[in-house]
Amino acid sequence: MSAGGNDGTKDGSADRAGFAASSEERHRERMQRKKELIDRKIAQATIERGVLVVNTGNGKGKSSSGFGMLARSLGHGFKCAVVQFIKGSFSTGEEAFFRRFEELDYHVMGEGFTWETQDKERDIRAAQSAWAIAAKMMADPGYDFVLLDELNIALAHRYVALDDVLAAVAARPERQHVVITGRGAPDALIEAADTVTEMRVIKHAFKAGIKAQKGIEL
Amino acid sequence: MSAGGNDGTKDGSADRAGFAASSEERHRERMQRKKELIDRKIAQATIERGVLVVNTGNGKGKSSSGFGMLARSLGHGFKCAVVQFIKGSFSTGEEAFFRRFEELDYHVMGEGFTWETQDKERDIRAAQSAWAIAAKMMADPGYDFVLLDELNIALAHRYVALDDVLAAVAARPERQHVVITGRGAPDALIEAADTVTEMRVIKHAFKAGIKAQKGIEL
C-alpha cells in the first residue's frame, strides 16, 4: 500500500481536486475508499467451508504458523487434532504446551529426523502409522481442525502415498480445516489447496553461527 | 534434498562404487553423511543469545507463526509478552486462547484496522501507547520472549518511529527473543534481524471467494 495509492474507486476525485483538503481529511477519504473496497471484497466472499492450507518453502515459520492457527482454533473452541510426521529436536516446547488441552488430540510420529534414525524401514513404518491416524481424523466430522505437521517431508520421501493424501483431503467433512506443512509440497497438493504460502529465507540466524535455542525458530 | 543428492563429503565413494549396495544400505550411507553434515553445522553454531525474528511479505502466516513461537516459548516456561499493533477481526481466537496464561502479558492496541477507524490522530495515539508498552517490555530482562504483532504496519504508516524500534532492539537484554511481524518490514529492521522470512502468496482462498472464518487464516 503506497502512501498515495488509490485503493478504491475514483468517483468524485475531480470535484475534490480544487480543494486544499487537510492531511487529516485526505487520510480519512483514502481510508474510507479502502474500507469500501475491503467491505466489498468481504461481501463477495460468501463460500463457507473448511479450507486446505499448505505452508511450504525453505524458510522458517511453516510449522509455527500451523501451531499458531491451532492456538486460534482452540481459542474458538474447535475440536482439534495434530499429527507431527517429523519430530524435531526443538518441537518439545509445542508438545509441552499443547498437550495440556483436552479438546486436542496430539500425536507425534516420534522417530526423529530421517537422518537421525538412518533406518529407512523403521521410518516408513512410523510414517505409515502416523498417516493411518491422520486419515482417521480427517474422516471424522467431530474434528474441526487438523494439523498435519511436516507431512510434505513424508510425501517427498514417498513414505506416505500422495494419492492417499489427496483422496483423504477430497473426502473430508465439508467444514473441516486442514493445514499441511513442510518444504517441497507436491504440485498436486498445491493444486488441491485453497491457500498456499511459500516461506522464503531472507536471512537465517543458524547459518550465521547462532545456536538453536529453546522457544525460538531460528 | 534430491533422492540422489550427496549432502556430505565424498570420501570413500570410489571404494564403494564397485559394490552392489542394497537400497537400504545406500539410504543408510546417505543419511549418515547428512547427519554428519548437520551435526557439524550444529557444532559450528555456538553463539547463544536472544534473536530478532522478522516475518514479512504479502502472504499468510506472519502473525500465526509469531503466535506459534509464543506457544512454544510458553511450553518452555518462558515469561512472554505480546503487543498487537493492529487488532484484526479474526484475532479474537488468539486472544481468547492466550489470555488464560498467567506467564503471558497480552496487550491489544484495540482500535481496529486503520481503514476501519478513518481517524488518523486516534490511530497515532493508539500506536504510540502500544509502542510505549512494547518498549517497556523490551527493556525488562524479566521477559524472555516478546511478540510485536503487526508492528511493521505501524512503522509503514510512521505512527511509530523506526529509530525508536531499532534503538530498543539494540538495547534489549541479551537473552531476550523478539519477533516482529507485518508486511513491508523496513530495510533497516531486516538489516538488524537475525532471521527474516518472507511469506509469499502462492494461492489465497479469500480471493477465490471463500469467506473468512473463525480459526483459520485464509
Q: In summary, what is this structure?
A:
Chain A has about 220 residues and is an alpha/beta fold.
Query: Averaged pLDDT of chain A, please?
Result: 81
Oligomer state of the chains in this structure: homodimer
Our estimate of the beta-strand percent of chain A is 15-25%
Highest-level CATH class of the largest domain in chain A: Alpha Beta
Return the string of H and E elements of chain A: HHEHEHEHHEHHEHE
Strand order of the largest sheet of chain A: 3-2-4-5-1-6
Report the strand count of chain A: 6
For the record, the CATH architecture of the largest domain in chain A stands as 3-Layer(aba) Sandwich
CATH topology-level name of the largest domain in chain A: Rossmann fold
- The helicity of chain A comes to 40-55%
Largest interface: A-B, 90 and 90 residues
Function (chains A, B): Required for both de novo synthesis of the corrin ring for the assimilation of exogenous corrinoids. Participates in the adenosylation of a variety of incomplete and complete corrinoids.
Organism (chains A, B): Lysobacter antibioticus
Protein name (chains A, B): Corrinoid adenosyltransferase
Keywords (chains A, B): ATP-binding, Cobalamin biosynthesis, Cytoplasm, Nucleotide-binding, Porphyrin biosynthesis, Transferase
